[in-house]
Design goal:
Blueprint (H helix, E strand, L loop, with lengths): L19 E13 L3 E7 L4 E7 L5 H5 L6 E10 L14 E12 L16 H6 L1 H4 L3 H23 L3 E2 L17 E3 L7 E3 L5 H9 L4 E10 L10 E11 L3 H19 L3 E2 L6 E3 H7 L13 E3 L12 H8 L3 E7 L7 H13 L6 E7 L3 E4 L8 H11 L6 E7 L1 H19 L6 E2 L1 E5 L4 E3 L6 E3 L26 E6 L2 E8 L4 H10 L4 H7 L1 H7 L6 E4 L3 H8 L30 H6 L9
Parallel strand pairs: 3-5, 6-9, 11-18, 12-19
Antiparallel strand pairs: 1-2, 1-4, 2-3, 4-5, 7-8, 9-10, 10-24, 13-14, 14-17, 15-16, 15-17, 19-22, 20-21, 22-23, 23-24
Length: about 600
């Protein structure tokens, strides 16, 4: 017989009735009924109710046990009476009569209880993360994460992909977020960088002649924390394929995601063939390139309406004449909504830093008119034009805002989400995936007015490469794409530029000299000169996938040992100071700010 257990704490049932068994685990909960003491024993797998009567000589010792003490019990399985069956537990039809027990691991007074999902401060939870991870909900999230990764590995192997590991110590990249730097002892004054992603290495794998690669890759970026992004490090499903086009990547990823989300969630998939939305359309109709397609609300452009003479909304007209735009959200059949609903949305917009949201409702008595604070500023003809543009009907309402493009897109996108939630029209029981495609290759830096890469500098431009209009770089589209689910961006990807001369040309538009490209991307540019296949890929975030499946709002809830908002590990006291000897070995000296 095994020393510590014959069964796990989720296994025993009526088939084990009258069996002598051994269980080991944590004391999850105690209930003292005077003559009987009930103990819920917990391990990784589940719970078993154990019971001891007062006649046992070890009763008082068990009674005094601190919760979360690790014990081994030996006892006999007995059937519960019908009125005490717990249908929520796999072991709910039986209990174990304790005949002896042994303490395996003492427990000090707990800084927080384990058997509840009550919220505690981030500082407390992260300092005692090993305790936090014992709690049922987050424990199950981490198990879910493991199962999802295992499933991904199995599926990718089925699809013909090979798993390779790429280097962790590499060179610093000038693109993207800040690097984490690692000083080299053997090369004084030089530094490695932890990879922001295996981008260059996975392309080199394709150049090396391997056809399909994947990896559950650790990535390191010195970024500020967000709800959907861990500071410091995260994991992604990194994949790359040779001799493919954009649609080939979509086919693999769609098949994988449909299988993942069907297996690990009871929610429905809105689309099994994911819609493809052009970037410029996404920004127009949703105000963002991360649209939540569960929300049926669509944004319309009303800028030209405010150039009409019969529109008397002078504030917006002046803004439009100075280059601002007007965007609107139509809400169907909201004529009976109280004034407080509309004013609440306007107040919310002001709290977001906007000037508010104007609104009115379409009415018809003898003529078409608009009910609301600014409704009287629109003629019947202008209202008809708005109805035509927005596909509005009598009884519908519109919210609209005016501003410069970036500020306007931000507030109107947030307003679309807010109004959708207020109206209760977002289906929380489904996943709505989509692809955002046709990203611009370049964009203008708002502060310097210089041209820079908008997405990924290694992407292939669209169209005939011999006919690209380099004189109008902002018109160049790239084979770049994002996959989005329920308003969460899961990944960016691209068909790669595998032609060195074309790469030099595109980098020159962004202000890079040829020698700079050779220096900063030496491994990549050199490899592409030795016969590179057309290739492309993508890298969906593991943390975000699991966050969606677990129905969590914060990525911390699906990450085993996350850092806090200041990129600190409170449990391990990292980052920490190092000794003078360590600095000396690395030829480093600190210049601390006063």
């Amino acid at each position: 017989m095994h020393k510590y257990r014959t069964h796990n704490c989720n296994e025993l049932n009526l088939k084990n009735n009258n069996e002598k068994i051994i269980l080991s685990g944590w004391v999850n909960k105690k209930r003292d009924h005077g003559n009987l003491l009930f103990i819920d024993l917990r391990d990784n797998y589940g719970l078993t109710q154990c019971v001891v009567d007062k006649n046992k000589n070890f009763f008082s010792k068990l009674e005094k046990l601190q919760l979360e003490t690790v014990i081994k019990i030996e006892g006999k399985v007995v059937e519960r009476s019908k009125d005490t069956i717990n249908s929520e537990l796999k072991t709910g039809q039986i209990e174990v009569k304790i005949e002896s027990f042994e303490i395996l691991g003492e427990c000090k007074e707990l800084p927080m209880p384990i058997f509840t999902d009550q919220e505690y401060s981030e500082e407390l939870r992260l300092k005692y993360r090993f305790l936090d991870l014992r709690r049922k909900k987050i424990h199950e999230n981490i198990i879910l994460r493991s199962k999802v990764i295992e499933f991904i590995r199995t599926e990718m192997t089925k699809y013909g992909f090979l798993e390779f590991q790429t280097p962790i110590l590499t060179s610093s990249s000038p693109e993207g977020a800040r690097d984490f730097l690692v000083p080299s002892r053997l090369n004084p004054g030089k530094f490695y960088a932890l990879p922001q992603a295996p981008q260059q290495f996975k392309q080199l794998i394709m150049v090396a002649g391997f056809d399909k690669y994947f990896q559950i890759a650790p990535c390191f970026r010195d970024e500020d924390a967000r709800a959907d992004r861990s500071p410091g490090e995260f994991y992604q499903l990194d994949l790359e394929m040779s001799f493919i086009e954009q649609e080939d990547v979509f086919e693999v990823v769609e098949k994988l995601f449909v299988n993942i989300f069907k297996k690990f969630s009871n929610k429905k998939l809105k689309y099994e063939k994911f819609p493809q939305i052009k970037y410029e359309d996404a920004m127009l109709y949703y105000g963002t390139d991360k649209p939540d397609l569960r929300n049926p609300l669509i944004i319309s452009d009303l800028t030209n309406v405010f150039k009409r003479d019969d529109v008397k909304f002078e504030i917006f007209k002046k803004l439009v004449n100075s280059g601002s735009l007007v965007r609107a959200i139509l809400t169907k059949n909201t004529k009976d909504k109280p004034r407080s609903f509309f004013d609440g949305i306007d107040k919310w917009a002001k709290e977001q830093g906007a000037s508010g949201l104007a609104y009115f409702t379409f009415e018809k008595n003898n003529n078409i008119s608009a009910k609301g604070p600014v409704g009287k500023l629109f003629s019947e003809e202008s209202l008809k034009e708005i109805m035509k543009i927005t596909k509005a009907e009598i009884g519908d309402s519109i919210f609209f805002s005016c501003g410069k493009i970036n500020d306007l897109e931000n507030i109107i996108s947030l307003a679309r989400d807010k109004i959708g939630k207020e109206l209760g029209i977002i289906n929380e029981d489904e996943f709505a995936f989509c692809w955002i495609v046709d990203y611009p290759m370049f964009e203008e830096d708002k502060s310097t007015k210089k041209i820079k890469f908008s997405h990924n500098p290694f992407s292939m431009p669209q169209g005939d490469i011999n006919k690209i209009d380099y004189n109008n770089p902002l018109n160049i589209k790239a084979y770049q794409y994002d996959i989005v689910c329920n308003g969460v961006e899961l990944s960016s990807g691209a068909i790669r530029n595998h032609i060195p001369e074309l790469m030099y040309k595109l980098f020159s538009i962004a202000g890079y000299e040829k020698n700079e490209v050779d220096q900063k991307f030496s491994g990549m540019i050199n490899a592409l000169s030795y016969g590179a296949p057309p290739h492309g890929g993508i890298a969906p975030g593991i943390d975000r996938i699991v966050m969606l499946l677990a129905n969590e709002k914060n990525i911390r809830e699906v990450t085993m040992f996350p850092m806090n908002q200041n990129a600190e590990d409170l449990m391990m006291n990292a980052p920490s100071e190092v000794s003078p000897n360590q600095l000396k070995e690395l030829n480093l000296a600190l210049n601390k700010k006063k």
